[in-house]
């Protein structure tokens, strides 16, 4: 949200782009907090809430597959990209993250066994 404000895409761009008063993106953090509260409190319990959580979780798993795949690519081609971060996750952790998110993306398409 802060970067969208800095680029002038959002209305009230100066508000969203600011780092005041704590040298942190308070407006963006508040917006994220507000949306999380609405997602938790607005839908009725039961199927509607479960549907909403599934609707949010699936695109996140797809994005995580691409992020983890990019990290594996960087690990395997470290010298080509001149990539030496001061802190990084180990390759087995990144591969586990990649495989677990691939499972989350593929599992909804596997039909349940018929009794």
From TrEMBL:
Pfam families: AA_permease_2. The chain crosses the membrane at residues 22-43, 55-76, 88-110. It is a multi-pass membrane protein. It is found in: Membrane. It comes from the Eukaryota. Its main location: membrane. GO terms for molecular function: L-amino acid transmembrane transporter activity. GO terms for cellular component: membrane. Keywords: Membrane, Transmembrane, Transmembrane helix. This is Amino acid permease/ SLC12A domain-containing protein.
């Amino acid at each position: 949200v802060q970067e969208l404000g800095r680029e002038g895409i959002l209305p009230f761009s100066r508000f969203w782009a600011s780092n005041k008063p704590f040298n942190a993106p308070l407006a963006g953090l508040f917006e994220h907090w507000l949306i999380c509260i609405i997602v938790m409190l607005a839908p009725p319990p039961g199927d509607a809430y479960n549907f909403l959580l599934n609707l949010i979780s699936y695109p996140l798993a797809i994005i995580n597959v691409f992020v983890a795949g990019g990290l594996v690519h960087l690990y395997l081609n470290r010298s080509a990209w001149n990539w030496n971060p001061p802190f990084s996750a180990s390759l087995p952790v990144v591969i586990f993250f990649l495989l677990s998110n691939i499972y989350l993306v593929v599992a909804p398409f596997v039909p349940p066994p018929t009794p």
